[in-house]
Amino acid sequence: MDGWLFSFMTASALMLLFPALPVAWSLPVLLLGAFWLAYQRHWVLSGLLTGVVWMASVGHWQLAWQLPNDKIRQVAIIEGQVETLLQAESSPRFTLRLTKFDEQSLWRSVRVRLSWRDADWHLEQDQVVRLAVRLRPPHSMLNMGGFNYQQWLFASGIRATGYVTKAPQNKLLAEGNSVRQWWLSRFAELDIEHRGWLAALSMGYRGWLEADDWSMVQRTGIAHLIAISGLHLGMVSAFIYALVALLLGPVLGRVRQRMNLHKLALVTALLATLGYAALAGFSLPTLRAWLMLALFVMLLNSNLHWRPRRILLVCLALFVLLFPLSLLTVSFWLSFSAVLILYLVFWRWPTRGRGWAIGAALSVMLRVQLALSLLMLPLVAWQFGLVSWVSPLVNLFAVPFVTLLLLPLCLVALLILGLHSEAGQWLFALADKLVDLGLSAVAWLEAQLQSAVLLPAISAWVWLSVALAAIWLFMPRGLVPRSLGWLLLLPLVSTWLPSRSDAWHIEVLDIGQGLAVVVHRHGRALLYDTGPAYYSGSSAASAHVLPALRALGIRQLDWLFISHQDNDHAGGQADILEGVAVLQLMTNLGRCQAGWQQKWQELDLQVLWPQLGEYSSQNNQSCVLKISDGQNILLLPGDIEKKVESRLVATEDLRAQILVAPHHGSATSSSTDFIHAVRPEHVVFSQARFNRWGFPRPEVVTAYQAAGVITHDTGSSGQLRFKIEAGQIQVQGLRATRYNQWFMQ
């Protein structure tokens, strides 16, 4: 059985790497083959085929409903129920489970993700609404070091995204009756400083945490403390078990009823944790933890004895069957890795039944924390691009502080809050002081130690070899030769050796409707434009440009060029200046004027436009930058239009092998004369997919293709990477090379 479970899990996970799913008609045939192999007792092959059939079936089911092409960015009338727990705000983002689409009832459950600027009423969980919306298929910007929002949407079962438009059809059809929403509303009335942290600890709601809070969570590795998961459910179940045993033990002993107090306490604890999981919104980490707890209770009550390996495999198989899309989430692999590491720790250093002692308990805690920090490092470094030095020390104190003191106080305060608001306020005020004390201690530790080191992007295969090396060296002496473990670290060491390549690189980032281009060589870089700022307060610079720079290993910019002051080009300037050291700033309002030249990293930088004293629209004041290595040339024209193009054609040598299309492929730019003067081999359109302006315009794309130019657009390809070496140009799109799985198509 263990072989079947392991092969089923392996095949299910490997199916996520495939660029396409098996055709639907082949799945019944494969399933019959799996049954036949099981009958022949070929358990491993049977499990592999079953895993393929299961994940392929899930994939086909998820892709069965697609937004019709004629409805993309068109107004549609939808009805559904709000799923997201919401706080009072004028521009909420929420998930809606659809029941009707353009007056037609849906035959299956479909989720969409919406934003609503200046909402007509206060949205709450479980409300039934009718809304006029503009939708588009799930899509995200893809850049090195950035968050894969499209994968998150698919894992959440969301089949379209969009926004609510102002329309008379927008109606609240029924009020919600969510207990969790009611509790959040009571929570919002509390007069406490650290509401966000306490709401996360108490009920798993993290919407009040700020960007600085999340940054601190990543640097210190305490995310598991603010996600309602195994740690929290374990403490709640232990508390309920002890309470039942304490209250009912004397009673049952006195009346001598034939009732097993142990089993009664276990079942009561399980039901109590189910209620707590409901309060946390049945998030995937919570459900995974509760299922493991339920399996544990079932084994205890039935007097079954399974080896830890069997328990782990059964739990994982259940997760894949019940929540197959959770395989696409980082939290699943972090949880799975943590459980596996705990199993290895207690196998490597088994605890002896010599009674309870503080020293022994502290020794076990220290051993577990150090093992988790070391063995989880490759996965955390691969996914988040950082290594936290302070994490083991912070968790050593934070875990007992939260689980033994803060969490019980928060849960009692939450129960009291539902009965008596003033008493709940007093208890949460006490918890608030404890949170303040804990955050102050973490801040002090961060000040004493460098909390985290940011890492450049390193191949997943390198981190896999590091993980295998850590496990290898973890084994007892004599079981495996240690020298082979050290050899597995060589791929990581090789990534830090200086490169002998003389290539220079151009990264046209995928930042939606805007522009940001990184040119780098020998670890030195310049940035041309920063992308837009958003009305929410964030920007493409903080979400995409800065993570991409970190992934490239770039810690400072020699030059920052701002082509012109439009938001889609300069909106993130402040975030760039704050987030990375910039040695020289060049703007079209300052030194970025025609005639400026500079030698940089054996490349020639030359500004062709604007002319000094020339005044025009912002677009036609764009700083036009030419970068050359003597053989290959990059031309960055900003948003210039045909009027300026004709001036440049008449006065400048515009020949370039790589061109970033003027004004994102607008019909106001890219004249025939300009295309013939530049004669590019590659042209890049930097724009959002499904953008409202229809960029790049079809006639512009046709004009370039008629001239024999290879066309690329970031909306379809993600970040575009040009490598120029020895006169040769290599180009890769991130979507085709790294994110070409079936769920990303």
UniProtKB/TrEMBL annotation:
Membrane-crossing segments per the record: 12-36, 43-63, 222-252, 264-281, 287-304, 311-344, 356-381, 393-417, 452-473
Compartment(s) of residence: Cell membrane
Recorded superkingdom: Bacteria
Residue ranges occupied by any ComEC/Rec2-related protein domain in the UniProt entry: 201-476
Main location: membrane
Residue span(s) of domain Metallo-beta-lactamase: 511-582
Gene3D superfamilies listed in its UniProt record: Ribonuclease Z/Hydroxyacylglutathione hydrolase-like
Name recorded for this polypeptide: DNA internalization-related competence protein ComEC/Rec2
Species assigned in the record: Bowmanella yangjiangensis
